[in-house]
Amino acid sequence: MDNNRKFTKLDRNLDVSEEELKTLQELERNDDGFKDEENSKYKKAGSPIAPLGGGDALYFDYTDEYPAFEDVIAIQFQPAGKVYWYFYPEQKNPGNELKQGDIIVAYSERGMELAKVLNKSMDDYKHQNKINFIKNGFVRKAEPADFEREKQLEIKAQSAKEVILRVNKELGIKMKIIKVKYTLDDSKAIFYFSANGRVDFRELIKRLAYELKRRIEMRQIGVRDTTKIMGGLGPCGRTLCCRKHMHNFLPVSIKMAKDQNFSLNPNKISGICGRLFCCLGYENATYEELRKDYPEEETAIFDRSSNRKGFVKKVNAIGKNITVFFPENPEKKEKAEEKIFPRSALEFNERWFINLPQSEPNDHDLENITPIVAKEKEVLRESLDENSEKTERPQPQFQNKKPTPKDPNNNPNPNNKRNPNWHGNRKNFKKFPPRKENHENQEGNKE
Q1: What Cα–Cα distance (Å) separates residue 317 from each residue in 285, 321, 352, 366?
Q2: For 146-161, what is the mean pLDDT?
Q3: Whole-prediction pTM value?
Q4: Domain 294-368: which CATH class?
């Protein structure tokens, strides 16, 4: 790590470099919602869904009565798109029943489109405001002719995409075309694009309207909206959540990743859209509940046994322990160290304390734990000492011991006599002066 980098202190108690700070701030940017679904300027009490192409569909007014649960249906126009609540009391009549999975034709903010009926949820229904309900938006159940027309419009959309790419090249406009869509009544073409900053496409719309002979609508969307439209696979190997089941984007922050002990490496906590993982918000409520009984990071904490001041470095709510950093204190000859303490050792009395029972060792302090192997060796050594006092140890027998010298009297070949001055193997034969012990033994035998 480069020690010359300038570090900036964040409000979230994180020490990161300026470059990492910019990257994390970029990851934390959240879009307000799926911009393809709804235009906020059209959503007003009693106003039409869209001034052009919205048919007779209107938002509920404040004078209207709150609709009953049996009189509304929940639909969506895009895969895993926003859920809309349409007032359709005629579904209670015979022949007009709707069930989950049915395809209908309805008016949306873009115009006439195909929509899918969802299973209604009472909890979601109770959270809806009166203005969220739409009346006069249901047209009919989808017919085979509607599906055939949808396929033909998809072919037209591909040719329209080639046209806009050619016109952009001629005009020198830098934008990325994400998707082209035609309304079911073939009255409007919608172009979804992404670009850096604002784009002046007034001349572009004139050229497209002249060549395509229909109304043109340009929609600039963000990276999360682009990923939702295009789809893909996440790092987990499954379909992206925003494409599969997420109707709205969840607000996620760096604090969520920090509370869940994730590495703050941007490459590890960001998805293919370049923003933070949406799944960080799934378990955030659980972690917030678990961390209520723990001190926050960088909080001062005191050890009652040694009266030493430390700081909380890491909180592991799942493992039920915390990591405390004790700074160096040369006056008391204390070195800087990190220790892990269990949740049961924490105590709060106007400030946080570590209160470990003196009779019980700290299981998380590895320096005070005697290895099991050392204990076994100590027990084995004691048992061997006791046995050696009672019985003598047997002499160790070595496999490569020297052969015993043969008796010269029992030598079958008397001419072959062993040289008393030879020691070792024949290859390492050396002549040494005769040993005194051998001469003394020979004189004693002569006598």
Answers
A1: 13, 7, 17, 20
A2: 92
A3: 0.65
A4: mainly beta
